[in-house]
Amino acid sequence: MKQLNLLSAAFLALASSSMYASDNLVSLTVDNDLFLQQDEGYTNGLYLALYERGGIPYMEDSGSSPKHNFLVSPLMWSMPSSNNQGAVNALNIGQTLFTPKDLSLEQPDPNDIPYSAMIAITSSYITLAENHADMISTSIGVVGPAALGEPSQKLMHKILGSEQPQGWDAQLKNEPVFQFGRGRVWRTWAAELDNFDVLTTTKAHVGTIQSSVNSSLIMRYGRDLKDSFGSVLLMDSRTTNPIAVNGEWYVYAGLEAEYVFNQIFTDGNTFRDSASVDYDREFLGLNFGMTYSWGQSAITFAVNHSDIFQTQSDQYRNETRYGTLTFAWQI
N or C: which end of the chain has fewer CB within 10 A? Predict the structure, then answer.
């Protein structure tokens, strides 16, 4: 509980120090595999994010670009220093839950994903240019009972009338965790009417939460697409799904390739003995969804991490796939 109180205090302090402009956004993202009628692997995520925007051409009276906060300062050397067309500061706090397939077992299957929960704060800073955007991010948090995964899942299952999980006593132990991220998205091609485009991304993460490299190819069809391509960089940190802005709407589909060096949810605790499971470090999957904006609000529904190739047993099939819903509004 002490770690949770510290994280909450840090989030409030960061929010009060950085969110001062008049054109800020808030988003709430809910991830759940029950959207896809399953309850295993990555089972639930709930994320609240605050955004400060500035210096963006399509925004009236947007002022200058916002400053980054201290959490991402160690990575600022990697960011471009010129040719920017605005920036976005994003601050996110969220809870992530992983569970095995069989929730009825008090002693979970050692060959399945272990019970685990994480609460983390992620600070992301995006700089925008005409045809590309760059992002850096820092996440700090805690994994283990302090992340309150057991009461969260039991409350949700009670509300939904679902089976109560029995194996949380075997969850990963308390451990502070961190992750640094760096990414770029290119608007590789766009139709003259701005109703169709192709994006390519490359991202890298280093830390005890996960160390990985990935790249994706994303196609979008809709209206006035030029103003929102930078938001795809926030998917991996679960800050938000791709969101339409400024009266846009679009549908999208992306092919993602990833290699994972380590991830605490499957490798187990970093410095202590705990449950763990073998997994495929290579991943090739699909992300697809649709988003619509109106007035000062936007909504997105998507399906992420649909694995194309499955080389492990059927027990692991689509364990990382989940449905996700984001609602964003201006404050």
Answer: N
- Rounded CA-CA distance 289/46 in Å is 18
- Could you tell me the sign of the dihedral formed by the alpha carbons of 22, 301, 287, 265, in that order? positive
Measured distance CA(262)–CA(238) in Å, rounded: 18
DSSP string, 269-294: -SSS--------SEEEEEEEEEEEEE
Within 13 A of 260's CA, how many CA atoms are on the CB side? Answer: 18
Q: Are 241 and 218 spatial neighbours (Cβ–Cβ below 8 Å)?
A: no
Give the span between the Cα atoms of 312 and 320, in whole angstroms.
Answer: 13
End-to-end CA distance of the chain: 31
Cβ atoms 110, 275 nearer than 8 A = yes
Separation between Cα atoms, residue 234 and residue 219, nearest integer Å: 17
d(CA 124, CA 117): 22
> To which residue do tokens 């490798």 refer?
267
Please give the chain's pLDDT, 331 residues, in tens.
544 454 444 444 444 444 444 468 999 999 876 655 555 556 788 999 999 988 887 766 567 888 899 999 999 999 998 767 889 999 999 999 988 888 899 999 998 889 999 999 999 999 999 899 999 999 999 999 999 999 998 898 888 787 889 999 999 999 999 999 999 999 999 999 999 999 999 999 999 999 999 999 999 999 989 888 998 998 877 777 888 887 889 999 999 999 999 999 999 999 999 999 988 888 888 889 999 999 889 999 988 766 655 555 444 444 566 788 999 998 8
Which residue(s) pair with 234 in the sheet? Answer: none
Taking Cα atoms as reference points, which of 238, 222, 229 lies closest to residue 302?
238
One of 1.20.140.10, 2.40.10.10, 3.40.190.10, 2.40.128.140 is the CATH number of 2-330, namely: 2.40.128.140
Residue 315 region, left (φ>0) first, then alpha (ψ -120 to 50), else beta? Answer: alpha
Instruction: Please choose, from the candidates 328, 320, 236, the residue with its C-alpha nearest in 3D space to the C-alpha of residue 281.
Output: 320
